[in-house]
Inverse folding.
């Protein structure tokens, strides 16, 4: 048993200074790039049809990124100072927010992709609300569910075990609260995310192949082809940003004490999804087609 523990510690060993440097750099990039993307998107919204369901999903995705990015400066301050100075309750909130950001972003990505796929298979140019007020009401309902139904129980149970966070100068050390029930729930969530993303990826490849066969040599000049590539981009964001964390977590759930710093680095990779708006805005500006980007 002792040899096995030593092997695990060797496998998960990482210099703490290197880890904090990596985390500081990654979250700094995330904060700057995420805020830049949000500002650029706000300017582009003026020229976009905000009644479409896809645009409504993107706007809500932007709101989710904005809420998460407000907590990032506190993470950076902690990684620089190596000391938490904002109280245990706020530590729980900041720590929980990155997990909430993963699943809220995942929900909006999946919603957007399903809407796009329905539009393609039903051969509809776009699916939209009758009025902008309807999109506002729908968005408000979604955030009421998230903030009043989902968020309070999550924050109540997250990091609420007395044995965690005993050192008030430390933050994000909630791994000791992983019980058997929490472990099983994590496995279920991991299985759902991997299955859904892989299924969407398979459907998207099928759609792209079908579009290429129908358009043949004219494919690069057709809007429908570029629309499907943009849908593929959403899926790639989920694969690149969410898969490393959730696949490593399968191993981590049985080695929480030895691999905590690796888990923090993998968790920071999920936050790179906040840079998607920057990519959207840059692509829209370069192609001078903001409306065409979101309308389908």
């Amino acid at each position: 048993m002792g040899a096995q523990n030593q092997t695990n510690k060797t496998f998960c060993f990482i210099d703490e200074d290197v880890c904090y440097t990596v985390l500081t750099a990654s979250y700094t990039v995330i904060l700057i790039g995420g805020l830049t993307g949000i500002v650029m998107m706000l300017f582009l919204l003026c020229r976009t049809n905000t009644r479409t369901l896809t645009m409504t999903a993107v706007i809500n995705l932007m709101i989710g990124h904005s809420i998460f990015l407000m907590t990032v400066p506190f993470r950076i301050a902690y990684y620089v100072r190596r000391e938490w100075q904002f109280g245990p309750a706020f530590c729980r909130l900041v720590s929980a927010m990155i997990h909430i950001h993963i699943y809220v972003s995942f929900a909006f990505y999946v919603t957007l992709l399903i809407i796009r796929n329905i539009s393609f298979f039903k051969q509809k140019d776009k699916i939209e609300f009758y009025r902008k007020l309807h999109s506002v009401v729908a968005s408000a309902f979604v955030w009421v569910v998230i903030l009043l139904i989902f968020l309070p129980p999550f924050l109540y149970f997250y990091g609420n075990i007395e044995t965690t966070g005993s050192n008030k100068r430390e933050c994000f050390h909630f791994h000791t609260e992983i019980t058997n029930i929490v472990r099983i729930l994590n496995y279920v969530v991991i299985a759902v995310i991997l299955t859904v993303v892989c299924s969407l990826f398979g459907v998207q490849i099928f759609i792209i192949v079908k579009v290429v066969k129908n358009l043949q040599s004219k494919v690069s000049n057709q809007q429908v082809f570029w629309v499907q590539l943009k849908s593929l981009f959403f899926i790639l964001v989920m694969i690149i940003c969410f898969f490393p964390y959730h696949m490593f977590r399968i191993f981590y759930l049985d080695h929480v004490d030895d691999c905590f710093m690796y888990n923090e680095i993998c968790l920071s990779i999920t936050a790179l999804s906040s840079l998607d708006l920057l990519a959207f805005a840059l692509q829209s500006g370069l192609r001078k087609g903001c409306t065409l980007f979101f309308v389908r």
Observations:
- Residues 2-175+188-295 form a domain with the Rhopdopsin 7-helix transmembrane proteins fold (CATH 1.20.1070.10).
